Amino acid sequence: MIMKVLVTGANGFIGKNLSIWLKRSDIDVLAIDIDNLSKLDEYALQADFIVHLAGINRPMDVKEFYDGNLNSIVKLVDILKNNKKKTPILLSSSTQAEYDNDYGKSKKMGEDFLFDYQNKTGNPVYIYRFQNVFGKWCRPNYNSVVATFCYNISNGLDISVNDPDIVKEFVYIDDICKTILDLIKSEDYKGSNKILTIKPSYLLSIGELANIIKSFKESRDNLIVPNMDNGVVSKLYATYLSYLPTNQFIYDLNMHVDNRGSFTEFIKTLNSGQVSVNVGKPGVVKGNHFHHTKNEKFLVVKGTCSIKFRKIGSEDVIEYIVSGDKLQVVDIPTGYTHSITNIGQDDSITIMWASESFDPNNPDTYFEEVVISGK
């Protein structure tokens, strides 16, 4: 039997993402938003689990805080009570519930009401205070600094940083969705009497955040890819890309072209080297140099090439014939002068990885022909 989950606020940032996660897990999503509130009674009674995301944070009138953040919960609970139905409820609250403002007070009242409902009836309740959620589809220039920075920087607009030293705690949308999905799928609904938070979370100053997102835009020029070992950086980069204007998904690389073909750097990293693309014309020899420490891997993906080696101090030449018809990686060890020759009839294409990003001040590249003249 297919599980049914009621998601209120399904058209919002979190709701859209969560609905996709649930649907991809073969869960029937009963979506409620401002345009179909009439279905609340029907869906609430059908649901096996309720995720209450709907709320008000920027009303025209202060009373709307309490209507959206408290009375909506009361109405949902009344439906369950009147029909003698116990359904686990997960509430999306806010860290603002700790503050003495109308938004915070309305959120806290909603939390307290649900806790009281759980204590009196045994109906499982889970209350999460989400901390500065970021990810794809969040509305920029509204209430998310990450969304605003990503949108403005990717679109060439200025950003404003009043105090770069302010530190905030951030959580990623997919971590929220996974947490909720894991709970729903567990079917072990005992409820919780304490406020819950999402883990992992990330502490960043606003200045750090701005610099990280600016570095993503700069990466198209310096080719340095973000550090994907850093969880928050990889998640911020995924978020940033979702804000790119649709006419900017593509960008040019600096091709070094001559009569031998071309050489183009593709990506660079801070600690894992770089990847380049080498195009060779028929009969062209490239290389004839060696490295002391830098090492490389060559992968011919088009054409046929001869890759030759000679150990420094030796006269013996080693040769490998490789082609795009059978993909093979050729390691380029240190201390061996090496060359690559296109021996086919058409242009060859070779993907080259080097263990170090190229440093013109320390290239670690020394010319020496592989084939010694007269040998």
Write down the secondary-structure element order: EHEHEHEHEEHEHEHHEEEEEEEEEEE
The percentage of residues in β strands lies in: 25-35%
Average pLDDT, rounded to a whole number, is: 93
- The end-to-end span amounts to 78 Å
Task: Report the major sheet.
Answer: 6 strands, antiparallel
Which radius of gyration do the C-alpha atoms yield?
A: 29 Å
SS-based class: alpha/beta
Q: Given the C-alpha coordinates, what overall shape results?
A: elongated
Helix percent band: 25-40%
DSSP strand count: 19
Number of helices: 8
Residue runs with pLDDT of under 50 for 5 or more positions: none
Spatially, the strands of the biggest sheet line up as: 9-10-11-18-13-16
Would you mind describing this structure in some detail?
This protein is α/β, with parallel strands linked by helices. Helix content is 30%, strand content 28%. The protein has helices spanning 13-24, 40-46, 63-82, 102-121, 145-154, 173-186, 206-222, 231-241; strands at residues 4-8, 28-32, 49-52, 89-94, 125-130, 133-134, 167-172, 202-205, 255-258, 261-268, 274-280, 285-290, 296-302, 304-311, 317-323, 329-332, 336-342, 348-354, 366-367. The strands form 4 sheets. The chain has a 6-stranded antiparallel β-sheet with strand order 9-10-11-18-13-16, with no helix packed on it. The protein has a 5-stranded parallel β-sheet with strand order 2-1-3-4-5, with helices on both faces. The protein has a 5-stranded antiparallel β-sheet with strand order 15-14-17-12-19, with no helix packed on it. α5 links the parallel β6 and β7 (167-172). The longest helix is centred in the first third of the chain and has 20 residues, at 63-82. The radius of gyration is 29 Å and the shape is elongated. The termini are far apart. The relative contact order is 0.09.
